[in-house]
User: Fold these one by one.
Assistant:
Number 1:
Amino acid sequence: MKLPIYMDNHATTPVEPRVLEAMEPCFRHFFGNSASTSHPYGWDAEQLVAESRNSIANIIGAASKEIVFTSGATESNNLAIKGVAAMYRERGNHLITQPTEHKCVLDTMKYLETQGFEVTYLKVDSTGLIDLEELKKSITDQTILISTMFANNEIGTIQPIAEIGRIAKEREILLHVDGAQGIGKLDFDVDRFGVDLLSFSGHKMYGPKGVGALYVRQYKPRVRLVPLMHGGGHEFGLRSGTLNVAGIVGLAKALEISRAEGDSEYERIQALRDRLEQGILSQLPGVTVNGHPEKRLANNLNLSVDDVEGESLIAELCHEIAVSSSSACMSGTSGTSYVLKALGLRSDRVQTSVRFGVGRFNKAEEIEFAIEYFTKIVKQLRQRSPLPHPKNT
Ligand SMILES: *Cc1c(COP(=O)(O)O)cnc(C)c1O
């Protein structure tokens, strides 16, 4: 067993060997520029891109020309949201999202607020779900876009996209979905879910980093965007820049494998996650599970641990298990989890949350080790420095 055990698969995933194998020839042989039309080096590269585009489109129920390759979900989200805002500004200046979105959506929204747009942040309940009635009520004649994540990256909560899609369609408002955490793991069809724009990323599904895509609906309705990147007019004019052929091949391969093996993998990972959850909870009092009990990604386990100090906990855990924490010191970002705060969690439980993200390559023995190690550390910390029982602060 290699320590620390990697259980931070919401942050990123290791590259699947079959993905790496598919990418390698792109570096060794097919190094052409896919925009070079005057020789076979370019044709070969273009062929690989076209096949990848086709394959990805098929998997999500789209047409090839609706897939725009980007550098990842951050860029896809920026392109979708800023692109719609700039293009449809004449029609309205109101956008709707939720407070538990990824930073790249929230910061994009904040930026648009400085540019004269108005943004409604829907409340989420204590499990992280939005309220569909509140969504309906928040729509005005100025609303041009609803942007919601598929699954949350901290607590795994899965939003009811099909229902949101129906509401958006009724009111003829565009729906953008940040699918970074759900695409690959769960079946997704852009028509069935009523989605007009869909972002996803290679490195969250055992593909390479620095590559992702944005689905842009071209029929009923034809969504138009103002691009972020101007240049050679690549990607239907929506994203100029020489294509990352190897990355694109890797993204397609990663998605193909994830969907081909997705359902059985989902069950296997869910069993591992459930064992982890049950193993820890049965041995440790004062531990609560954050997120939705059922509508939650199968690999997600977000725990709050009472009567320990968040920073000490992660400082101890990191040598043996690689997990993520919202404690201020270790997370490398500013402050505590705004996602857990949005759920209305007690503030000490926000401080001491630990996120496990079980992955494709985790073994049962690693789960057993993690249960034992986590339990041991928490017990030790509680003995060493007994904190007064946390008050509602
Ligand atoms: C990781 C992640 C992103 C950002 O994706 P990148 O490809 O790293 O830019 C956006 N949204 C969610 C929900 C994510 O988990």
Number 2:
Amino acid sequence: MAVVNLLFALSVALTTAALPSPSPAPVDARDLISIPDALTTAPWYGAPENNFSCSSTTHPNPVVLLHGLSADDQVDLNLLQIYLNKLDFCTFSLTYGAHTLAPWIGGLKPLADSAVEIADFVREVLDKTGASKVDLVGHSEGGVQALYVPRSQPGISDVVEHLVALGPAMHGAEYYGFTDLWYIGGNVTRDAVALVLKTVGCAGCDDLAVGGETTKELNDGNPVVQPGNKATIIMSTNDKLVPPEKSIVDEEGVRNILVQDTCPEDQLGHAGLAWDTGVWGLIVNALTEDYDAPVTCDTGLTF
Ligand SMILES: *[C@@H]1O[C@H](CO)[C@@H](O)[C@H](O)[C@H]1NC(C)=O
Ligand SMILES: *[C@@H]1O[C@H](CO)[C@@H](O)[C@H](O)[C@H]1NC(C)=O
């Protein structure tokens, strides 16, 4: 559908819906659910299909990828997924926390609700692949979920091994620039996402903010990482949205890594954590526990 129609539909929804209630807006949902053309034609769009027949002789744990706030399974860790597939990892992804009015924009629901969706997906991957454990890799809100799901969902910490979180807002984000991710579709998708957020609300945003429900829960004084789970937090000194002091998990056994310790020239920002070959190398090293293997440093996206 034409992007102009989408924007028009969203404008109608905006003027008629009560804000910021996530209750269904009086607007033709068919107009909202379409992904803008400008996004799907962007070179960075698209993830491999989940292939539950996948098996790997070198990496027994399937890797479940968890996108960030306002992103989805097709935009965010999708290029990492392709990269991991080339290295013989089996990967799986889902869009979690999406509103029915805009199923292409994930992570908006309360984190506790999304955690149930993610736990169900982990069980589905285990069932269908026959693997005994998965690894979780998440970016931003997805990074928080990589730590929060094993902590909050019954039985999950027993069936995950490696947890990798890229710039997770563990200690309360001041989180107003996340739609920068949608620069990849240009201003059109960025504006569309901003309008959808205003229309359907964003409980997930509140949960991740300073004083938000999930932030409080994760900082209640009990350990974040569960016994047997091997956690790596990957952060950038140039992350303005979720700086390292907001992401660090200061617990024994948790690896807290700055990209710049390995790649000093890389000026990547928060969104850039998803699309950086240096970060991809650090992720692979965490999954293989070959922590000092060389990585291909990148210059990084600064936003
Ligand atoms: C899924 O994986 C199996 C096993 O590796 C392979 O034979 C099959 O072609 C894959 N299917 C798709 C759609 O890629
Ligand atoms: C996108 O929006 C920014 C800020 O509003 C503006 O400076 C820029 O020119 C716009 N880009 C395009 C391609 O329209």
